[in-house]
Design goal:
Elements lengths: L17 H4 L20 H5 L35 E3 L7 E11 L4 H15 L6 E6 L4 E5 L5 H11 L5 E7 L1 E3 L11 H9 L2 H7 L7 E6 L17 E2 L17 H18 L16 E6 L6 H13 L4 E4 L1 E3 L16 H10 L2 H16 L3 E5 L19 E6 L13 E2 L4 E2 L3 E4 L12 H4 L7 H4 L1 H6 L3
Parallel strand pairs: 7-9, 7-10, 8-9, 10-12, 12-13, 13-16
Antiparallel strand pairs: 1-2, 2-4, 2-5, 3-4, 6-11, 14-15
Length: 465
């Protein structure tokens, strides 16, 4: 039974439903509308484990055994576990979790020492380490909700001899002439002209030895626009190769967005060219790494995804995700308005612990010659309110329309009177044509922009090498 009001919605089609493709001849499985679904390797379809991501440390009773060492799932709509941030009330967090990131040349030794000291100081069963990953240098701590802030503040003082960062686990959200038919529409063609894509393609369309990692929700690898040139796919919460959207139809507009968002972003960045369908990614010659979070979009999983990309040799990592500021938003007339002076104060003084953690993540990326690209966000806020977007060593992308004018929903980075600048570039981000089914298009208007166009700018330059 569909939820009320959803019986008229056109859901994205099940890629394995052969009735959908209506073959008319042996070479056309799409009913004459383009190429058919891409074949999937068995490992993608069957959820083959990624065995070399998520090592264990045997013989340490304070850590979970390998069979139980899994990222705990969190329902982002569960109000008993996902609560307003008690520090600032501007975001939502997992009520009983802290995340730890280690800066170490010997991760296993330091994670062992941390675990032993943690349980020595907090011996109660209410304090747990449900998950750790010595490949990424990440750990989740289970802490009673009423003690969360106190433990976060105390840990740097009680854990000795280990260099680490600890912070809250925040809930995140999506921050939304070739032969391809999209180029026949002037409204889409103008985006490519605006960023001088045609001139760039005269130099390079990217190369297979340049890897673009995309950390997002799901990826429909049966879609011909994005179902080629991918390597090392992973679904972070399950550590399997299955990055596909769920088979069941979405139950709400929010779930529909989660299903489609990753494929949409991938199409903008690396979507196929000269294939007779859709439009084109900006770097259609590059290989790419699909890194799926599913509906488990929180800061811990995003960090794990970024670290996976770095250690898989990504040259560019696109993260079109960001802090969820609900119920605050200056782009939503039904949300709570936040004056610019309050935004400036928050960006300059608040959540320094989260800022420090993200700075270290980006330092690891920089040390591996990896460029991080992130969307500014969709709340018409100062982007520096998100501690993930304060670092100067990443590319932060605001959204503009086809004329180069700031989108009314886009976050912004420059406040001249306060001498603040959290911006790097701007790129088209309004009503973008991409790889996702037309059933998704109405919802994209609510979650744009995505950074796919500008995330490929470093890629095109790398492709010249």
């Amino acid at each position: 039974m569909s939820p009320p009001g959803w019986d008229t919605i056109s859901y994205p089609k099940n890629p394995y439903d052969t009735a959908y493709y209506h073959p008319r001849n042996p070479n056309d499985t799409t009913g004459g509308i383009g190429r058919g679904p891409m074949p999937l390797p068995p490992g993608i379809r069957d959820g083959e484990p990624v065995r070399d991501w998520g090592d264990s440390i045997p013989g340490v009773p304070e850590l979970p055994n390998p069979r139980d060492n899994r990222i705990p799932p969190v329902n982002p709509y569960d109000s008993t576990r996902v609560v307003p941030n008690p520090v600032d009330s501007l975001s939502r967090i997992v009520a009983d979790q802290l995340i730890v990131f280690f800066n170490s040349n010997d991760l296993k030794a330091d994670m062992t020492s941390f675990a032993q000291q943690f349980k020595q100081h907090y011996p109660s069963n209410a304090y747990q380490i449900p998950y750790y990953n010595p490949n990424a240098g990440t750990m989740i701590l289970g802490v009673p909700e009423q003690e969360l802030i106190q433990v976060m503040n105390d840990l740097p003082n009680v854990i000795k001899g280990v260099d680490f960062k600890v912070t809250l686990n925040e809930i995140m959200q999506e921050t939304f002439m070739p032969s391809d038919p999209g180029f026949r529409s002037s409204s889409y063609d103008e985006y490519y002209k605006l960023i001088q894509a045609y001139q760039a393609w005269d130099v390079t369309k990217g190369s297979a030895n340049v890897k673009v990692a995309i950390v997002d929700s799901y990826f429909d690898l049966t879609n011909p626009e994005i179902g080629e040139r991918y390597v090392d796919p992973i679904h972070i919460p399950s550590k399997t190769r299955n990055v596909l959207p769920p088979m069941a139809p979405p139950r709400s507009p929010e779930e529909l967005g989660v299903y489609c968002h990753g494929s949409h972003v991938a199409g903008l960045a690396i979507g196929g060219q000269n294939n007779g369908m859709g439009c084109s990614g900006i770097a259609p010659g590059c290989s790419w790494i699909p890194i799926a979070l599913g509906d488990q979009m929180n800061s811990f999983n995003v960090i794990e995804g970024i670290m996976y990309a770095i250690y898989r040799g990504a040259d560019v990592v696109n993260v079109s995700l960001g802090r969820n500021f609900h119920p605050y938003s200056n782009s939503d007339p039904d949300a709570i308005y936040l004056p610019i002076d309050d935004q400036i104060d928050y960006a300059e003084m608040a959540n320094k612990r989260g800022e420090d953690l993200w700075e270290y993540v980006y330092k690891v990326a920089n040390d591996h010659k990896c460029v991080i690209v992130t969307a500014a966000g969709n709340d018409d806020f100062l982007s520096g309110m998100d501690p993930m977007k304060r670092c100067k060593n990443i590319v932060k992308v605001e959204a503009v329309d086809g004329k180069g004018i700031k989108a009314n929903f886009s976050n912004f980075g420059i406040v001249e009177e306060a001498k603040l600048n959290y911006s790097t570039v701007a790129a088209p981000g309004v009503k973008m044509w991409s790889a996702t089914p037309r059933a998704c298009i109405p919802f994209w208007k609510a979650i744009e922009p995505q950074t796919g166009l500008k995330s490929s700018l470093p890629v095109t330059m790398l492709g010249k090498v």
